[in-house]
Amino acid sequence: MKITCTRKRSRLATLLLALILVPAMMLGVVSTLSQPAKADTTYPIHVTNGTAKLGGTSVVAAAAGQTIQLVADPAPAGQVFDAWTVLEGINLSDLASKTSPVTTFIMPAKPVNVRAMFKSGTPLPTTYSLNTSVSGGHGTISPSKTNVTAGSMEAVVFTPEPGYEIDKVTVNGSVANVTGDTLNIAMDSDKTVVVTYRKIAGGGNPAQPGNPGTPGNPAQPGQPTRPTVNKNKGKSPVPAAPNTAVEA
């Protein structure tokens, strides 16, 4: 009898323990599934003589797979940029360009350490491009130029066709005020100049004047009146015959 009671108590205790543990285990599973995913792990980036950027913002760490831009610092006096060297994390072949002061690479899942190197030399002057065009025709514009020294002034000349005038001029998409037929451009960046011409209001086309009318034909003038010729000129007048009638 005692053995039977002991067994019953043991089974009851086991059942109670199961009723307590199973819900607790299930709650733990649900809690684990409901936890938000951890943020991407980032890895440090160290740049000597330069800066690492992500989306235009300087960064010192990034997640694997992100595109990182490297920008070298301005070269010291009497020196120019030479190349990038890689100290850790990536290979030189991973750089879009190892000889450009601005380049990119894909961030690996480990730290990256690079350095911008300089060498003796005279920096080349900064130059820009001047692009010019006519929209719609009816005139010309000064030709485009390349390698224009930064800070210089360039005169752009507009030449509309006869009967046309300047309608609108834009510089890098913004409308510019033009006095006369010339616009002076300050070359502080690449510039694109576009001119549109329009027909002068109320002005005829001088190349196609109106028909002034058909004049008479001078080669065929009207027939003049012929003068009367006196056939008896120079002869004695003939006297009238006398009346010879006989009276009855």
Overview of the molecule:
By secondary structure, this protein is mainly beta. Among the domains are: 42-120, Immunoglobulin-like; 127-199. The protein is 13% helix and 39% strand. The chain has one helix at residues 2-34, and strands spanning 42-48, 50-54, 57-58, 61-63, 67-72, 79-88, 102-106, 112-120, 127-135, 139-141, 145-149, 153-160, 164-171, 174-175, 182-186, 191-199. Strands 11-9-16-13-14 form a 5-stranded mixed β-sheet, with no helix packed on it. Strands 4-1-8-6 form a 4-stranded mixed β-sheet, with no helix packed on it. Strands 3-2-5-7 form a 4-stranded antiparallel β-sheet, with no helix packed on it. A hairpin with a 2-residue loop joins β13 and β14. Residues 242-248 have low confidence and may be disordered.
Global outline: elongated
Report the sheet-strand fraction. Answer: 35-45%
Oligomer: single chain
Per DSSP E runs of 2 or more residues, the count of β-strands stands at 16
Order of helices and strands: HEEEEEEEEEEEEEEEE
| Computed Rg | 52 Å
Tell me, what is the CATH class of one domain?
Mainly Beta
Largest sheet: 5 strands, mixed
CATH architecture of one domain: Sandwich
The name CATH uses for the topology of one domain is Immunoglobulin-like
Number of helices: 1
Question: pLDDT under 50 segments (min length 5)?
Answer: 242-248
